[in-house]
């Protein structure tokens, strides 16, 4: 009530983004838009194109949630955040969810009061060096100058790695990926370190990607995933199971091409039916429409499709599935069953 | 027959609170005070409520926990196992370093540019106008980013110095290396050094400890002692001049007194220079002035220098031409005219805005964020807040630091202003 | 006696001799202006060297620039065809490709006319303030400009700005009709209290009621879509306009003889001015939500505008305090001797004069503020520098720095330099008038 009085006028204008009340789902519905926190620009994961339309793997996650909740994959407000501003944006309710290459760690989950809803990319911190430097292992980097994004877990991992191996280094702190790339290319640092996926994405935009190698050492575990605020389990469930739906869809062979056809009537596979809402009431349990998963999959495709179109081997970024293959193919991507 | 109305009763009526000027100011102030307190109470209670909702508390315990991150430029001992409080201290010293360097350099640049802009030399004054207008009218942030990019793109990498026929070479007889990671200059070393003494006033703040080099302290003390001695010699010369009219020659005694003790001390300590040398990925030895510091320093210097140039120009133009003419009429030489007549008056006009420029420069040093210079905003206000999630406490400390710094500078300005104020009737 | 034609006195003037070569034309000018002493000579030569170095580095790069390409790779190919290496020429093609983003951010391209029109209306509204020759009645139009500009920029229903503007009408009506009835003091209080009550309780429902009854609206644009120079201008201009009333109140409070009011104002001004803008911006980003009732949450752009308004109000207060102090004491005493009360003397005698003296200072504050709006890039807003990074984050234009910086710098230079000249002109004019 107090809120509506004070911001009465502003809310009408839509300038006040409304309340971050306990029920995020209701807020999102009332607003008609999902506020999704993304990075300020990392090719393949989230970056605006010439028309200002956001594209990328993390963006696809936001669009899937928007499609599941609102039925419209374009009803997303992308809020660019830096490493330093992302958590406050989520905690303050400025964004409903964060899909921004954020590592799931104990302290973020417990101390910073966030809820990670799963892992959409298993990553690890790597190093990129110019081929001409002749370095083949991260342990050869004694005395090297290292570019590092501040406010990230990679900064702490880096300190730990060099400390554990008893070698010295000179950190050059930078604010965004673009700056890191500029300094690295100018030779102001010998190596740039961040998540291996980010390194691949960055290397893809170089003039001569072949002149740079990503060192074999992965010095940390970086499970990246979408996250929401503590305390709204219903909303957390929606984001978690949207991700699981995309993963399950790939496992079951449901793609954006055939999803409409499969959803038209019950198929022979009961799990597909439950996923697509032609059998059971899973959607209603989440407080969504029965065909929520159909819309989510139709938005950008299943997990595999999102991967292939944005960061896969046929894109300039060229990441192999590796750890991020389905568990049936030796990867870690595994969804609990839809039952 | 009571046509006369009673005289107003002495004593207090409530309406006086509004209509009597004696009491009205009290009323207004009380109301203002209550409103102010209500506003503060509202903000504080909101904050408490919000903190409770987030399950956070308000405490500064995080300052004692290990920071976990490394800082490249540190004036005092620090590693990633030191505490967040220590990291903040490193940042504070870095802020002060760039602020002091910037103020000194900006003053020099500003005075030169301001004087040259008044020069009769057409091309020089035009060039200075271009400099002043160019820097004043483009955002400082853009200059910082631009200068940093120039440093990174146009200077050689350390490995260009390697090999038979290196693409780059050191200058000043192989003593200074300019690379795109910074400039390496020779460092002073003492082979018979006296070591350091650890200072640890733990009762203030447990992370406040630092080492003072005895060598440096000894040198500074010697120089101060020499200067005091020189002043004594000059006073004696004055007395003799007053008494006899002949001033004894003192310059060579002064020079001897200044240089001999320091020279002897340096020789005793085994003073020599350590030169930078290419080792592995980088140069080692020597003092490394990082590009982040250089770019920030240069940008702050040139930007603030442009403003100072205008202040200096204004100060000189403000002095009436009659003052110069009167001084000449008294038979003062041009140099004496400048020192005794023009400058003391111009200073009164120049110094107050100059100090407020120093204040601006100090605050603008927080733009270090653009080049990754680890000032207090980057350590305490950046990484620490981000790793611990203590934005309220962190921002409060950060604001307090800048506020105290600003108040100190403007306090200094007020003292100066009062001391040079025209004594009016 | 015969007269002779011989004469020993010249009857006609000799033709003037040509001055020596060193004393005329270019040579004289050069000798006097460039080589009047050996120091000057050295300075001249040094300057020429500097100019030569700058031009010889930049000229080929600028002359060989490519203006038509779709990506940096394409641009470098074109340079390679001309036999130049990839840094041999500038790639200004990026401006052709992305100028609209640098200027308007992600504002919908079919609606570019709206911010442009808003700027024109704003400048037109400014005219009566800046040029004293225009009729005073036009100031009423000026008062309407903020609401029109707001509606054009953000769009949505027209009734929101209308109902907010009505609050000022409520205040004005209170001044006009209630004050004579209830007395000056109660009237003064009502002038402030009534509009606030109106905004809190009536404006919102009124706007939504009118909007549903008579829907007049244009397409709503999120402030997230604002960017580039438009964002800088919106933040800078709204902060300066909003901070004027606040700054005047703060300046008056600082001059007040009532200690509590004076010292609250001094504390506010010194705290704001003592802390860098970037810390305030991070406060807006990280902390503003802590200070508001739980559950409130605004748009980041709006939070930034609020914070920058507070920031500039402290600076404006100092400028106006300078204006107040510059007035001769006789003006205050004259107002008192006429029996005017405090608000009357301020409104009729002191402020009109003090504000006029303060205009150059206000313009200078605005120039500083406009340049400082670039700092919002650090909290994730797309100011021109933020757009430049976003442009570089795409595969097409990865690696373009100088061209974007030059363009942004040039735009800022043009805007700030012309405003600076205007403020200088005003200062000169005021000096003449005061003589």
Layout of secondary structure:
The complex is a heterotrimer of chains A (339), B (425) and C (435).
Chain A: H1 2-6, H2 8-13, H3 24-31, E1 34-39, E2 47-48, E3 54-55, H4 57-70, E4 76-81, H5 86-91, E5 97-98, H6 106-110, E6 114-116, E7 121-123, E8 125-130, E9 144-149, H7 153-164, E10 169-174, H8 177-185, E11 191-195, H9 196-204, E12 212-214, E13 222-224, E14 227-229, H10 233-252, H11 259-264, H12 270-276, H13 282-286, H14 292-300, H15 303-310
Parallel strand pairs in A: 1-4, 1-5, 9-10, 9-11
Antiparallel strand pairs in A: 2-3, 6-14, 7-13, 8-11, 8-12
Helix pairs in contact in A: 4-10, 4-14
Chain B: H1 16-19, H2 21-54, H3 84-117, H4 122-136, H5 140-154, E1 177-179, E2 182-185, E3 187-190, E4 196-199, E5 210-213, H6 214-244, H7 251-269, E6 271-274, E7 277-279, E8 282-284, E9 287-290, H8 291-318, H9 321-329, H10 334-364, H11 376-388, H12 391-420
Antiparallel strand pairs in B: 1-2, 2-9, 3-6, 4-5, 7-8
Helix pairs in contact in B: 3-4, 3-8, 3-10, 3-11, 4-8, 5-8, 6-7, 8-10, 9-10, 10-12, 11-12
Chain C: H1 25-33, H2 38-63, H3 72-81, H4 93-104, H5 113-130, H6 138-154, E1 156-157, H7 159-182, H8 184-213, E2 217-218, H9 228-255, H10 259-274, H11 277-286, H12 288-291, H13 300-326, H14 329-337, H15 342-372, H16 384-392, H17 402-434
Antiparallel strand pairs in C: 1-2
Task: Describe the 3D structure.
- The complex is a heterotrimer of chains A (339), B (425) and C (435).
- In chain A, a hairpin with a 5-residue loop joins strand 2 (47-48) and strand 3 (54-55).
- Chain A has two domains: 20-122 and 224-329, D-Maltodextrin-Binding Protein, domain 2 (3-Layer(aba) Sandwich), CATH 3.40.190; 125-220, Periplasmic binding protein-like II (D-Maltodextrin-Binding Protein, domain 2, 3-Layer(aba) Sandwich), CATH 3.40.190.10.
- In chain A, 38% of the residues lie in helices and 17% in strands.
- Chain A has 339 residues and is α/β, with parallel strands linked by helices.
- Mean pLDDT of chain A is 84; it is low at 1-21.
- Chain B has a domain at 63-161 and 289-420: MetI-like fold.
- Chain B contains twelve helices and nine strands.
- Chain B has a three-stranded antiparallel sheet with strand order 1-2-9.
- In chain B, helix 8 (291-318) crosses helix 10.
- The mean pLDDT of chain B is 84.
- Chain C folds into three domains: 24-63, no CATH class; 96-107 and 221-434, MetI-like (MetI-like fold, Orthogonal Bundle); 156-218, no CATH class.
- In chain C, 72% of the residues lie in helices and 1% in strands.
- Chain C has a two-stranded antiparallel sheet.
- In chain C, helix 9 packs across helix 13 and helix 14 packs antiparallel against helix 15.
- The termini of chain C are far apart.
- The model of chain C has no long low-confidence stretch (mean pLDDT 83).
- Chains A and C meet through helix 1, helix 2, strand 2, strand 4 and helix 8 of A and helix 4, strand 1, helix 7, helix 8 and helix 16 of C.
